[in-house]
Amino acid sequence: MAKLARLGTLAMGKESSGSPGTYVAPNIGLPYTGSSGFEDVIAQLRDESVRADDSVLHGSYQGPSSSDWSIDLMAYPDLAPHFFCATIGPDVVTAGTSTTLSVLTAVGATVVSLPVSLAAGTIIRLDTGALQEYAVTVGAPTGTGPYVHTVTTVAGASVGLAYGHAVSAVVQTPTIHTFKQNPAIALPTYSLTYFDTVSTVSCSYVRFSEVGLKIDPKASVSLSLKATGAPSVPQTAATGAYTAYDPWLGWSWTQTIGGAASTRGLTYDATFKRAVEAIASSDGTQGPREVFAGALEYDGTLKAIYENSLDLGLFTGNTQLPLVMALQQPISRGGQSLTLTSSKSAVFKGKRDLSGPYSNADFSVSGVANTVDGGVVQAVVANWQTTAY
What we know:
389 residues; mainly beta; 12-stranded antiparallel β-sheet; 7-stranded antiparallel β-sheet; 25 strands; globular
């Protein structure tokens, strides 16, 4: 009987840094889209020796084996950082603030009293369970402790809290996760566990070779992942926990090009890439000795409205100024954010496009190694995960 394809599952576990290639049961569910999946890659060794006959192939043998993965996902703010860690570098955590309400609040309240002072524009998460909600501080707080903060649940508007909250209800600010290159710390490896609706298999020693991030204001932000690992083996059925958050949405995209804010962006496709190789060596096994990851490349393609020559001037002048791409959820949905910064970016292609109803231009950009980013790019995520990736 035919199987319902949507019953398939894919999940991931981070392997121990001291034991790459040792299988780890998954704890991270990957809600993939499209035809995501993997294939076992086994080299064919052909015997095409001449044997006084009119046949070419006289034998076929299996050579080295590995696995190739292609996974498409929406860019969820608690999930995407795993892949920044896998390709850019280790997570440096800046802990958020955790405190409690000093005074109870009622439904519709636009102020909260806290024992700590928070800067204007700080996103807060109030309470837990069914009463959990998000807000952002507006302006400077007043008082000397407790501090009274004006808040809103919709940025740029005056919208009060949806729920009442008791004294001592938990109040938190986001944790900041900063991903930079650090060649002294090995990139992590992962175990992927896949239920294909018939059986469960797993692949260990998985390294991600490419993370594609696509931003389109008309769509959800999406990720396209490529990875290489050890060949698959039968595995006990196991799944991970799926994200409970909304993905980033393309319309929340803001950008800074050449040091100035720009609203001209139409689409942006970024790629974090490391050449990955499953090394077949003298270890007496068909699978790889190890899966090796090379140096990082960061490339992007930007389509922009062509209403002046500022963007094109970055190409013709080779000015190599900063390129900053940012995303943020609506405050009411958690306010989690992503900022990609290439403090030195080379625009190596610029092309006018007048084929549509309005003029636009296409640009190709690459991150150039610099001391500010510690490499070619850095990613900073503010979300509600308190532990490092």
